[in-house]
Amino acid sequence: MTTYKLNNLNLSKFEEQAAIPKYNRSNIKTGIVHVGIGGFHRAHEAFYTDQLLHDETVTDWGICGVALLDFDIKIYNTLKEQNGLYTLVVKELDGSLSKRIIGSIVECLYAPENPSAVIEKMASPEVKIITLTITEGGYNYNEATGEFDFDNPLIQHDLENPKAPKTIFGYLTQALKLRKENGLKGLTVQSCDNIQGNGDMTKKMLLSYIEKAEPELVPWMEANVSFPNAMVDRITPATSQADILNLIETTGIDDAWPVVCEPFKQWIIEDDFISGRPAWEKVGVQFVEDVVPFEKMKLQLLNAGHSVLGILGALMGYDTIDEAANNNDVNRFLRDYMRQEVAPILSDLNGVDLEAYEASLLERFGNIYIKDQIDRICSESSAKFPIFVLPTVNAQLKQEGHFEHAAFVVAAWAIYSLGVDETGKALLVKDAMKSTLKEKAIASKNNPVAFLEIEAIFGALKDSQSFVDSYVTAYHNITKYGVEKCILNINGNILNHI
Ligand code: CS2
User: Fold this and answer.
1) Nearest Cα residue to atom 13 of ligand 1
2) 479 Cα: distance to centroid of ligand 1 (angstroms)
3) pLDDT of 140-171, one tens digit each?
4) Residue 78 is assigned to a structural domain of this protein
5) Ligand 1 mean position to 280 CA, how many Å?
6) Ligand 1 near 194 CB (within 6 A)
7) Whose CA is nearest to atom 6 of ligand 1?
8) Which domain holds residue 8?
9) What's the average model confidence in pLDDT over 252-261?
């Protein structure tokens, strides 16, 4: 098959192989600046927006993708060479692949190379929304203090070099300042990250930074910037070399970085866009008054479910989430965790059928075509556990309820952090707190509570005797018997007797 590089010039050649943008991309103006152009954004917001741009009356909502970090140079270069185009490959439930070339990213900027271009773009009159996928750790929240972490050297750098920032907080502050100076309207900053109250969190963290960096900007920000909360959902594994080759071989589309994802997608947003928004509801986005219960449900069931499968699966020697989810004992462990520990603490979900949601999650996790990497799921667990798993534990502790499964997973994580699985294979621990995790994991061999001493993750959990008891028992049992044998027993409720 003849292959062609994916770019504007060759786009029409792919019409038979994939759905392609039917709108005139050169007519589309940038109305959204998106920071963090990884797979999640490209499988989600950029996809929804591409769908909307097919309505020919919509020309104001193109996306400018911003690569914020040094190592984002690769995605920036790829998108630049491909004129912002990429292929979204949906791995359907029957194993077939649906391919769609997405055209909604109409500009790209690489922040480290040209910080002022990013600030100016964010401050330009046509931009009405700044959206973010900067990962859970990107919000600079300290679990122990509950506050913004001013000790972060990058934040120190931004305070000292306001015109050449490195963090999102430095960029947003300068952009808002410029908007104010230019007498422009405000805009919406919308987080698309997996964080409870992601809009509230963004506001709180940004406010802390601005109070220190540009205190006189605070009242303007309060009056002119909105921060809707949102729940964003689509499982998007890391693109593998096999995905890239398969796309070229089956379609001739030579795309250096396609995105692969599951068919399921969901985006629920609070309708609080101070300077207007795209009519995303026309392409399936739900707008609600209060998204908090939906976020809780997703974070504590789906994302926590991922962490459960990831950490247990990694220790058991699995590589992908479906392998772990299709092990009957792990599957039952996860079901029991969701039923006994998470479901009781979720508040009123406005008519959502929780059991059906849980069942759909187990089906999504078990999808053998997705091949979501356990390494991806376990990466940055130090930022994920406080959001995905520990709120359940804390809520259960308050009502003297169940947390044995969660305690078991935390113990498994302590053992995982030693960096070797139960078959003796090295584990790829990728985490901003890797060295602390390792140090505490080693100390935990003699005294398992050492791991819980990482306050920035666990807060005061080590002071809860009942959690510590459950965790320590699990730690010793996993070390002695291995995960599989323990979960057989935990499922039979006789964990303490083996
Ligand atoms: C995952 C998420 O990062 C993780 O640990 O749980 O990336 C998850 O796949 C998405 O939130 C799905 O919407």
Assistant:
1) 233
2) 28
3) 998 788 899 999 999 999 999 999 999 999 99
4) yes
5) 22
6) yes
7) 303
8) 4-288
9) 98
Q: From ligand 1's centre to the CA of 476, what distance in Å?
A: 29
Atom of ligand 1 nearest to the CA of 234: 13
Residue whose CA is closest, atom 3 of ligand 1?
377
Q: Enumerate residues 6+ apart whose C-beta is below 8 A from 173.
A: 162, 165, 206, 209, 210, 213, 214, 217
Cβ of 136 less than 6 Å from ligand 1: no
- Whether pLDDT at 489 is above 90: no
Residues 325 and 371 in one domain: yes
In a domain, 307, yes or no: yes
Separation of CA 376 and ligand 1 centre (Å): 9
Ligand 1: distance of its center to the CA of 179 in Å? Answer: 34
The residues, any chain, with a CB within 8 Å of residue 242's CB and separated by 6 or more, are none
Does ligand 1 have an atom closer than 6 angstroms to the CB of 235? yes
Q: Which amino acid residue places its CA nearest to atom 11 of ligand 1?
A: 233
Residue 308 lies in a domain: yes
The answer to pTM > 0.85 is yes
Kindly give the pairing relationship between strand 86-91 and strand 4-5: unpaired
| 3-state SS track over the chain | CCCEECCCCCHHHHCCCCECCCCCHHHCCEEEEEECCCHHHHHCHHHHHHHHHCCCCCCCCEEEEEECCHHHHHHHHHHHHCCCCEEEEEECCCCCEEEEEECCEEEEEECCCCHHHHHHHHCCCCCCEEEECCCHHHHCEECCCCEECCCCHHHHHHHHCCCCCCCHHHHHHHHHHHHHHCCCCCEEEEECCCCCCHHHHHHHHHHHHHHHHCHHHHHHHHHHEECCCEEEECCCCCCCHHHHHHHHHHHCEECCCCEEECCCCEEEEECCCCCCCCCHHHHCCEEECCCHHHHHHHHHHHHHHHHHHHHHHHHHCCCEHHHHHCCHHHHHHHHHHHHHHHHHHCCCCCCCCHHHHHHHHHHHHHCCCCCCEHHHHHCCHHHHHHHHCHHHHHHHHHCCCCCHHHHHHHHHHHHHCCCECCCCCECCCCCCCHHHHHHHHHHHCCCCHHHHCCHHHHCCHHHCHHHHHHHHHHHHHHHHHCHHHHHHHHHCCCHHHC
pLDDT for residue 148: 96
Do 303 and 272 share a domain, yes or no? no
What's the gap in Å between 299 CA and the centre of ligand 1? Answer: 9
The CATH number linked to 19 is 3.40.50.720
Residue holding tokens 């927006």?
A: 49
**pLDDT tops 80 at residue 215:** yes
